[in-house]
Amino acid sequence: MTRRERLLATLAGKPVDRPAVSFYEIGGWEMAEDGDEFNVWNDPSWRPLVELANERTDLIRMVKPSWKKAPEGDLADLTRQETVRVGNSRHTKTSIRAGKRTLTMTTRRDADTQTEWVTEHLLKDMEDLDAYLSLPLPPVREPDLPAMTAIEEKLADSGILMVDTGDPLCSAASLFAMGDYTVAAMTEGARFHALLERFAATIQPECERLAAGLPGRLWRIFGPEYAAEPYLPPRLFGEYVVRYTGPMVEAVRAHGGYPRIHTHGRLRGILPLIAKMRPAGLDPLEPPPQGDMELREIRQAVGAHIVLFGNVEIADVENLEPATFEGKVAKALREGTEGTGRGFVLNPSACPYGRTITTRTLTNYRTMVRMAETWAG
Predict the structure, then answer these.
(1) Are 69 and 142 in contact (CB under 8 A)?
(2) Which three-class secondary structure state does DSSP give residue 232?
(3) DSSP character at residue 139
């Protein structure tokens, strides 16, 4: 089977020659050496890993939605952004005029880490939330389909495209510091629902337009983990995820697509609610202690209807001795493929974000490929 054929068969619940293996963001993003000192992928230690992903893994290329130029009515005229360099860090301040208030957010990007830290969140209290809710709604955008299919065409038989997008909860929760978010979500239900409805008013129709324009594709919908334990109780997962993310899942499925729910951490309390939304896939299925369910338990509960992605913890990829790590991979492959089920893709829970890839990390990634390629059950 080609890598593309293997992934499509896995999604469809059909037999495959061996389990698929993905490195998630590595090979998932088009990692380019571009001369930017803030791009850790420029370091030579990344090259063997990126080459391994591109040449031997089943590529699931993560593509953010591309949009045609937004029509008049967006928030650009109310927003100001400034970026300054301080030492080896890049600091960005965003200000939004909302009535009589000015909402501010700051972020920091360090040269040696491929991530951006929010150092000041946009919403700090309920008055900020009310001011944000008073802003005009952004317009619903039209997808730029050729920009996305061009990426898919470059993949050819090496893999498939995956539309990568957040849900209303992701947009809402990320406006707050985590402590402020959990308090608002648990004690200000009416206001928080109003915030979710604001985001759903644009996210849902855009999802429907994109799903119709790109039928039959894999999607990754992220954000549900904000309502998982220990942050919120399972009943609020029903209110904040099933109610607002469920329609996105339905829209993708309505056009023959495969909606995959992304949620880190504990699953036991929310797995029945996830199943209620009828997603086609679920990741990253972190093993204990990061998660609270073994892969065999997840497979027994939902594996007949949902393709399972993951079960390799990124901390193990980076830190475990190769012999110990090999045992972890064998367990994931065994529990992910045993018995009858929809399908399984071996992949880590995340991607290294430091500038240097160590010999141990590279060895463990190679182990994942070798074991998936030779797995006989």
Answers:
(1) no
(2) coil
(3) P
| Burial 234-272, CB ≥16 within 10 A → b, else e | bebbbbbbbbbbbbbbbbbbeeebbbbbbbbbbbebbbe
Q: Quick one: tokens of 73? A: 């009515």
Please give the C-alpha separations between residue 289 and each of 283, 284, 294, 312, 368, in angstroms, as whole numbers: 16, 14, 10, 12, 21
* 3-state SS assignment for residue 355: coil
Q: How many CB atoms lie within 10 A of CB 6?
A: 22
Mean pLDDT of 232-252: 98
Is residue 4 within 8 Å of 158, Cβ to Cβ? yes
**Residue 273 above 70 pLDDT?**
yes
Please determine, looking at this structure, whether the domain spanning 3-70+124-374 carries the CATH number 3.20.20.210.
Answer: yes
Domain assignments of the chain as residue spans, ordered by start: 3-70+124-374, 75-123
- For the cut 80, the answer to whether the pLDDT of residue 76 exceeds it is no
Distances (CA, A) of 317 to 143, 193, 252, 350, 351: 37, 39, 32, 10, 9
